[in-house]
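#random but structural
TW: two for the price of one
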Amino acid sequence: MRPKTQGLVAAPFTPTRADGSLNLELVPDYVAWLRGNGVVGAFVGGTTGEGMSLTVDERLRLAEAWRRAASADFKVIVHVGHTTLADCCQMAAHAEEIGADAIGCLAPFFFRPGSVEELVSWCEAVAAAAPSVPFYYYHMPSMTRVEFPMADFIRVASSRIPTLAGVKFTFEDLTDFKSTVEFANNGYDVLFGRDELLLSGLRAGAKGAVGSTYNFAAPLYLDLIRAFAGGDQQRAEERQQTAVRMIDAAVRAGGSAVANFKALMAGLGLDCGPVRPPLRGPTSAQLTALQSTLRELGFESFCCRRGTQLSNP
């Protein structure tokens, strides 16, 4: 039986400077920030980390920085997905060289696989480039438009990918998620990837979760998890509804969703810098309005931060 990830794994923002270049010097502080707020690992270079907006060289250096900064008990999963198989394999092999705990890979999303078998063939080649590293398929149909039942993927992949660890399931189809968890039958790790539906994921069998908002609101979700585990369904529901309102406020704030999330970090004491085009950040007025809305939700009582109050960067 493969070990299960328990708890929250953040999908970290990629730290950048004002000119858009990587700010890797921030990564050790970032690791300490996440660990100090109860997060157990990081899924590096994924959607939240703008992995598809980085060069391969930047992604290699980003992975190195996270692995170098993280202790052995902090899980580092490196995203190696790309539209070019050779680049995926290069990043997978590099992840093995630097000692990553696992790799994850999106489906190719320009020329897309037309069947589960074609998707498994792609993942098989990527996983083979890092033969000692656990492999997660990163299922995110909203971005890739590759939408196959994940129980079918595991069924086919289990006999062809020796290092298959499981699936990072970032999709709203809870029926498919539950079917995948049940099919995995404790043999694979199915990580839940929709923060606004975490409680539903827990009820469907999730043990570990990967998400963007765990960067700045992990205490809220940890309280949700404790309430669920302790049988306090009313509190768990209240915590989830607070998360939904928080996410909705950030999504509607004016900039791109990832940019709005990233902008919050500076006001909390960890400035991760700007996003890259075509994403756009919120204006100062939009950020101020977002922060005001979050205060009304009690954000300062459950956010991750160093300072004592939420402020503009």
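TW: number two ↓
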Amino acid sequence: MHVMPTEPPVTKLLNQWCEGDEGALAEVIPYIEKELSRQARARLRKNRRDHTLQPTALINEMWLRLIPTPPKSLQSKAHFGGIAAKAMRNVLVDYERSRNAEKRGGGQANLQLDEARDGTPPRGRSVVDIDEAITALAKVDARKAEAVTLFYFGGMEQLEIAQFLGLSVATVKRDLEMGKAWLGHYLNPRR
């Protein structure tokens, strides 16, 4: 009978990395790589098909941002997932801004979120537009902005968001509904 190796304590290894142990990061990557790939594919699937950024490149860029300044500590694997989601958001926004700059003055962005889920921002809105809207929402309600970020940019489900934020699933559901409605209004104000 083949015995499957057990997963090491991922949170402990991540915290060892946060404390400067690069060996712990090398040890934990195989156990979080699948989840990071899922997040990256989910995030890029929501964008136009003609962009050039691939999931592996998104993950590599995320690591380039996280490794020099790791978080001070992590409460759980889900907490790391939230931090990774924010880093991916920053990579996508920077990627889109650089592509717009290449077009001399920007115009409509190439990298856009689609309407894959009910309540997502309207078609044709770029990652930069979404980032701007979430930043504005954070000034009004930081918790809802955090939930929306984890949902859109982290590909997290309500239960994962609830665990990350230390909230009930019902509260996360309400926050997402209200946050999505707020974003929709912000992005398409009625005149």
